[in-house]
Design brief:
The structure is a single chain. The protein is 76% helix and 0% strand. It contains twelve helices and no strands. The radius of gyration is 25 Å and the shape is globular.
Length: 277
């Protein structure tokens, strides 16, 4: 029995339509929390058994109690808000500059010649080692902390933007030009989709470097923020507060990375990569 033209067109459309990536089963998603829970249980047990001295590493229950106490009196919320504001401003400045300069160097030959060499030289310098020089340039106030976050975020975004653009197959651009697409249309339909995977990787690395830089920046003559809270707790030997600050930093980094991965999955729904078996 021969298929009608309508049935044939539906079959062809179904065959060429990209298949939706199957969502991981709920049991697989739950399995990801087994290891963290096991670490917490072992940590608590070692603390209660006296294997881990409380003055060296507080038990999870003590850390949770300290967090509840600081949240109740408003200390935790105030310091957390100040840290988030610094992180957002620094990441926006550093990421924006990295995206702009990476695009110029990746798209334009003159941009590659003028922008890339000094950036490559500067990235060889450890940005946290620039703290003494930044103290001279911007002082010890808020600009220092924001500058450190911006420096930490700039290089991953720049390098991955540059690499993503330069990694696009030139034959695709030539095919788009042959089809009559304008320069703006080629940027939108060829360059941007091709560079997005590298750009998202750069953003994830930038967020990690930004949080790391913020930890250091808030321990230099700060009067608020999670880093300041940890340094103040160290002066009074409050190990549970120090551990609480570290856990909050880790949680913020995890949540930001999860948000970027979610955005990446939606923006790159057309891409099919290797999945773990």
């Amino acid at each position: 029995m021969t298929a009608t033209p309508v049935q044939a067109s539906r079959t062809e459309r179904d065959r060429t339509r990209p298949r939706q990536r199957p969502r991981p089963p709920r049991t697989t998603r739950r399995r990801r929390i087994i290891t963290p829970l096991l670490v917490v249980v072992l940590w608590e047990g070692a603390s209660r058994a006296g294997i881990l001295p409380p003055d060296k590493l507080s038990a999870p229950s003590d850390v949770l109690a300290a967090g509840w106490r600081l949240a109740a009196d408003g200390t935790l919320g105030h310091n957390l808000l100040d840290s988030l504001i610094r992180a957002v401003i620094g990441l926006a400045i550093g990421g924006g500059l990295g995206l702009a300069l990476g695009s110029v160097a990746g798209l334009l030959r003159i941009g590659d010649d003028l922008v890339d060499p000094p950036v490559q030289m500067a990235r060889m310098l450890p940005h946290l080692g620039l703290v003494p020089l930044l103290l001279i340039w911007v002082g010890i106030g808020e600009p220092l902390k924001i500058s450190l976050v911006a420096l930490g975020a700039f290089f991953p975004v720049y390098l991955n933007t540059y690499s993503g653009i330069r990694g696009i197959d030139e034959r695709l651009v030539e095919a788009a030009r042959t089809c009559g697409l304008s320069a703006a249309a080629r940027l939108r339909h060829v360059v941007l989709p091709g560079a997005l995977p590298s750009l998202f990787l750069g953003l994830r690395l930038a967020f990690g470097a930004g949080w790391l830089s913020l930890v250091v920046g808030e321990q230099v003559n700060a009067d608020s923020g999670l880093g300041f809270m940890m340094m103040e707790a160290r002066e009074f030997a409050q190990t549970e507060v120090v551990v609480l600050g570290l856990l909050i930093y880790a949680l913020l980094g995890l949540l930001s990375d999860l948000a970027l991965r979610t955005a990446e999955g939606r923006a790159l729904a057309w891409r099919r990569g290797l999945e773990a078996s």
